[in-house]
Amino acid sequence: MLVNGIEIEIEHKPIKNLHLAVYPPNGRIHVSAPNEYTDEQIKLFILKKWVWITLKRKETMSYTIQDEREYISGEAHFFKGELYRLKVIRDKTCTHHVEIRGNYIIIYVSEHTSKENIANVLWTWYKEQLIPITERLVAKWEQILGVKATTWTIQQMQSSWGKCHKESGKIMFNLQLAKKPLNCIEYVIAHELTHLIEQNHTDRFRHILGTYLPGWQKIKEQLNEFPL
């Protein structure tokens, strides 16, 4: 749907209310609408929200996006909110592995390893580091909120830090969280587990999250300040 010269993604779903979201890095606008809503009703809803949409697009399009990674020595990479320099050590006799030494993330690879495989080695290491953090914080917040996720997984995601399917109890967390400070990781985990109580971002959802994680709005701002 085209509104004021901007393309809006419309998705009809078996839900009760309209939901609007604006995603980085390019300000993509997505509206989830109940199946019975007409285009005219949806357009009216969008126009009523236009001032908010304009401000939100400006905000999301200003997020810092890292350039395409080359995975070469000297390149800057984050881990748990701290900035490190990459050091790639090639040795035909070594096994692929990663370690932190001082201000460096050191990747050991064989002599002719491609950029893509170096990236895979690094991201595998990121996942290995994120799993125990996630296990601990999921258990903590399940107890706090009185909920239980059926399963949770960690994977690369394009437009969200996490996703929760309330009906199935399944949760997905973005692998990019390995780069973020621990309080940001905890916020995302608390956020997604709260969705097991309230699926949508209603006043009830914000009240529950605010009760158990005061100041979550500031943490959310901090999360989005770090490069994606």
List keywords for this structure.
4-stranded mixed beta sheet, globular, 6 helices, 228 residues, alpha/beta
Strand content range:
25-35%
Overall body shape: globular
Largest sheet: 4 strands, mixed
Helix content: 25-40%
Which structural class should the secondary elements be placed in?
alpha/beta
Separation of the first and last Cα atoms: 28 Å
Low-pLDDT residue intervals, each spanning 5 or more residues: none
Summarize the helices and strands and which ones pair or pack.
Blueprint: E1 2-3, E2 6-13, E3 19-23, E4 28-34, H1 39-48, H2 50-60, E5 76-79, E6 82-90, E7 97-101, E8 104-109, H3 115-145, E9 151-155, E10 162-165, E11 170-174, H4 182-194, H5 203-212, H6 216-225
Parallel strand pairs: 2-4, 6-8, 9-11
Antiparallel strand pairs: 1-2, 3-4, 5-6, 7-8, 10-11
Please give a quick description of this structure:
By secondary structure, the chain is of the alpha/beta class. Helices cover 37% and strands 26% of the residues.
Describe it for me?
- With 228 residues, this protein is α/β, with parallel strands linked by helices.
- It has six helices and eleven strands.
- The protein has helices at residues 39-48, 50-60, 115-145, 182-194, 203-212, 216-225, and strands at 2-3, 6-13, 19-23, 28-34, 76-79, 82-90, 97-101, 104-109, 151-155, 162-165, 170-174.
- Strands 1-2-4-3 form a four-stranded mixed beta sheet. It has a four-stranded mixed beta sheet with strand order 5-6-8-7, covered by helices on one side. It has a three-stranded mixed beta sheet with strand order 9-11-10, with helices on one face.
- Helix 3 crosses helix 4 and helix 4 crosses helix 6 (216-225).
- The protein is globular and about 65 Å long.
